[in-house]
């Protein structure tokens, strides 16, 4: 049975690093909207169209993910999944395709996230958005940590 792997965490929590590792170990197809958006639109985080573009890319990546799951291929969605409702929605989608699902949560203290953000903004790694601390702080406040039940794999 194919499994949908949801990478859950804030920017700089290590989601993409873990997703790349899992991609090789499982194996799986890894889909990251940030990488696609940066290749298509560059560093557009301050552009008024950023969020709309991001939503469209996530929708297209889900279409690819759904087809891969139907074909029996494991999929890693490196979306962040900050809200419980969104995580449950994607797990329901996997179940409707007769695929399993698993949440991979990277729990990193707020101070460490901000330290990593400063470091990342200095290095400017390809495929990563430059994010200000001012933008990050409200995201930290709105993030919904997964419950222990959410961390249980589902068949």
Level-2 CATH architecture: 3-Layer(aba) Sandwich
**Overall mean confidence score, pLDDT:** 95
Superfamily at the CATH H level? Answer: P-loop containing nucleotide triphosphate hydrolases
Order of helices and strands: EHEHHEHEHH
How far is it from the N-terminal to the C-terminal residue, by CA?
8 Å
How much of the sequence is in beta strands?
A: 5-15%
CATH class: Alpha Beta
Indicate the structural class. alpha/beta
Helix/strand layout:
Blueprint: E1 3-8, H1 15-25, E2 29-31, H2 33-41, H3 50-70, E3 75-80, H4 84-96, E4 100-105, H5 110-123, H6 133-142
Parallel strand pairs: 1-3, 1-4, 2-3
Helix pairs in contact: 2-3
Quick recap:
The chain has helices spanning 15-25, 33-41, 50-70, 84-96, 110-123, 133-142; strands at 3-8, 29-31, 75-80, 100-105. It is α/β, with parallel strands linked by helices.
């Amino acid at each position: 049975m194919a499994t949908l792997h949801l990478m859950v965490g804030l920017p700089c929590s290590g989601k993409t690093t873990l997703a790349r590792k899992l991609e090789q170990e499982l194996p799986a197809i890894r889909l990251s909207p940030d990488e696609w958006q940066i290749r298509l639109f560059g560093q557009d985080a301050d552009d008024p169209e950023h969020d709309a573009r991001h939503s469209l890319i996530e929708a297209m990546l889900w279409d690819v993910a759904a087809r891969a799951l139907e074909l029996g291929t494991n999929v890693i969605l490196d979306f962040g999944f900050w809200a419980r409702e969104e995580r449950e929605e994607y797990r329901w989608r996997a179940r409707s395709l007769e695929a399993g699902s698993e949440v991979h949560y990277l729990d990193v203290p707020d101070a460490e996230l901000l330290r990593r953000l400063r470091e990342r903004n200095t290095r400017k790694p390809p495929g990563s958005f430059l994010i200000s601390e001012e933008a990050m702080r409200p995201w930290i406040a709105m993030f919904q940590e997964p419950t222990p039940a959410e961390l249980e794999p589902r068949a």
